[in-house]
From TrEMBL, chains A, B:
UniProt cross-references to NCBIfam families, sorted A to Z: Q_tRNA_tgt, tgt_general
Residue ranges constituting the tRNA-guanine(15) transglycosylase-like domain according to the UniProt record: 20-372
A Gene Ontology cellular-component term: cytosol
Record-listed E.C. numbers: 2.4.2.29
This protein's record includes keyword Glycosyltransferase: yes
Protein name (Swiss-Prot/TrEMBL): Queuine tRNA-ribosyltransferase
Reactions that this protein is recorded to catalyse: 7-aminomethyl-7-carbaguanine + guanosine(34) in tRNA = 7-aminomethyl-7-carbaguanosine(34) in tRNA + guanine
Originating species: Xanthobacter autotrophicus (strain ATCC BAA-1158 / Py2)
MF terms (GO), sorted A to Z: tRNA-guanosine(34) queuine transglycosylase activity
Stretches for region RNA binding: 254-260, 278-282
PANTHER family per the UniProt record, alphabetical: QUEUINE TRNA-RIBOSYLTRANSFERASE
Keyword tags: Glycosyltransferase, Queuosine biosynthesis, Transferase, tRNA processing
Pathway assignment: tRNA modification; tRNA-queuosine biosynthesis
């Protein structure tokens, strides 16, 4: 298999399709990313509560890190001087960074937007920062990210069509500037353009076509999973998909639930990231073959069974529900550690199953089977 | 070596002495405990921030769990029904439990002491509990602890001689009752008597002699490391030591700093427990060959070097000070996880070094050498 041969360029290979669903791999100098891929989120250079060895063992080929958080702490220039983000956090696989724009909009204060970029104050200490398309790419380059994102403006939904159009067109101009700035970076890295346009089909199509004309090595779909119903999100994917080049990876940003992932893969998405498995793990919620299980629930207090005895993840297989419930109730770190591990493992196995199913032309069956497991619900309550 | 031969009884074997310092091993059906031994504290059935696999890898042969915390949550009867503490928390080595008395005194509210025992309200939910010598031993038995402690009354220092005498004599009467209650438990477990008597030498001697007459399989020294100067603690150990049987293990409860451990080993102590390595790890403090290192300090922000490149613990060897500093500043779980791991490893290696040195008759040199490392201090600040 060529996926693991060392390469010095970035490329995408489509191995099989099944309806709109696709499987293949992205090749990077840091290693291959099997698609569809779920990227665990390592916001501040750590996937909260996990050792990177564990992240690798779950099956993750790539992790995401947040430009906004890292530019504030410890600072991009500092990480560069320390040898880059891979060595800093001890992850030698590919890393994808966002542009920082989304967190600037959601976390910082005193924002001022202009054609040039955005100025804001840090949510940590109030320090003043400037962010432009060029600076975002420069920061991502200092971090050493293998896959980088253009700076874009992500509007909140719902919004007026005019507002969606203005932000989408600004994002297109920023895409051009990002692309020029990115040319200074070493070979083998990739910059993705981001499709915007709110919930307006015509704007989404305009954005996708304009970006496709710019010939990016990959395309993100942004501005979704921001509170809209799932059917709106899926409709937007269906709208955009025909206008994206077949031979480039497609990344749906910030999505989502296991069901969102399955439905988006069915519509041609190749890459995902979301804090859901990690954040839920810190809040006592486990994602399993049997659906979501809330370990805070007192019904687990006397249950000696693991979350899933057939799993090959120790967190799912080896620890009793009674113990997990106890750890959660006592707010012990180990509870967050184990449930985060279990959830990232579940997300990665969900994608591994999707890849195998697409390759064998049975993706619809796979989706039905997985959803059937969720619908049957958790195994019966332990009677003691 | 007979230390690892399965046994069905509890015994202590002295292998070598060097001055008052001793090395040997405690045999239990769950495995051997090499002495001098440091026991990591797993208060609520978890050594905070560590997997038990890691605890084992640091060299720990035994861990401590707190009866008070476990009787409140999840409850001793519940743990017994789930198969006991070993299986509940997934640690198959020996476990030592305290009596719960110390935490009743320091954490609970509305305490009422009598000859019979103590009643109190839970600090978690205000629930009402009764604790007697018999109930403490019953709880420890339900947990399945390999080494159990008699219920005692631990007075705060300083206190009057009368108060120290009253509490010590009550503890002796409770020792008798605990011993009788313990007879119901399976073979191979051990109950330790606890020497009390405050900072009054005559009371300490009276307590030690009376307990020795009762012929316990091991002896604890309680009521120290409660705020008194180190020299008071060491003087009390020297006072008590000649009155404890040579062929029984001696456990100094709740102690202490690395220096406390070295000095106490020199005075004939075999076993220790303390929250210091774990609690300090959650507060950015690392114990190393070079003394204590506070990772919050900004001087680490650009330092690419690990805490100790010669260590065989990944937490000390593989992660840069810059990264640890960053994790601590961002209050990331992984910072606590790594520093706790590093500290428990350091404590265990300190005891491993002590065992080897005593066996070779060079314990004084070992102490001097270790203290010299601390005194030289941390390796010079990174200049960039």
């Amino acid at each position: 298999m060529t996926a693991h041969t060392p390469v010095d360029t970035f490329s995408f290979t489509l191995s099989a399709t099944d309806g709109a669903a696709r499987t293949g791999f992205v090749s990077t100098p840091r290693g291959a990313i099997r698609t569809p891929a779920f990227m665990p989120v390592g916001t501040a250079a750590t996937v909260k509560g996990l050792y990177f060895d564990q992240v690798k063992q779950t099956g993750a080929d790539i992790v995401l890190a947040n430009t906004y958080h890292l530019m504030l702490r410890p600072g991009a220039e500092r990480i560069a001087k320390l040898g880059g983000l891979h060595s800093f956090m001890r992850w030698d696989g590919p890393i994808l960074t966002d542009s920082g724009g989304f967190q600037v909009m959601s976390l910082s204060s005193l924002r001022k937007m202009s054609e040039q970029g955005v100025t804001f104050r840090s949510h940590v200490d109030g320090a003043y920062f400037e962010m432009s398309p060029e600076r975002s790419v420069e920061i991502q380059g200092l971090l050493g990210a293998d896959i980088q994102m253009q700076l874009d403006e992500c509007v909140r939904l719902p919004c007026t069509d005019e507002e969606a159009a203005r932000a989408m067109r600004l994002s297109l101009r920023w895409a051009e500037r990002s692309k020029r700035a990115f040319e200074a970076q070493p070979k083998g890295r990739a910059l993705f353009g981001i499709v915007q346009g709110g919930a307006v089909p015509a704007l989404r199509v305009e954005s996708a076509r304009a970006l496709a004309d710019m010939d990016f090595p990959g395309y993100s779909i942004g501005g979704l999973a921001v509170g809209e119903p799932q059917e709106v999100m899926l409709a937007m994917i269906e709208t955009v998909e025909p206008h994206l080049p077949v031979n480039k990876p497609r990344y749906l940003m910030g999505v989502g639930t296991p069901d969102d992932l399955l439905e988006s893969v069915a519509r041609g998405i190749d890459m995902f990231d979301c804090v859901m498995p990690t954040r839920s793990g810190r809040h006592a919620l486990a994602f399993t073959r049997f659906g979501r299980i809330n370990l805070k629930n007192a019904r687990h207090a006397d249950d000696p069974r693991p979350l899933d005895e057939e799993s090959d993840c120790p967190a799912l297989r080896d620890y009793s529900r009674a113990y997990l419930h106890h750890l959660v109730r006592c707010e012990e770190m180990l509870g967050s550690m184990l449930l985060t591990w279990a959830n990232v493992h579940y997300y990665e196995q969900l994608m591994a199953g999707a890849r195998a199913a697409i390759a064998e032309g049975r993706y619809a069956d796979y989706m039905a089977q997985v959803k059937d497991g969720w619908a049957r619900g958790d195994i019966p309550v332990w009677a003691g």
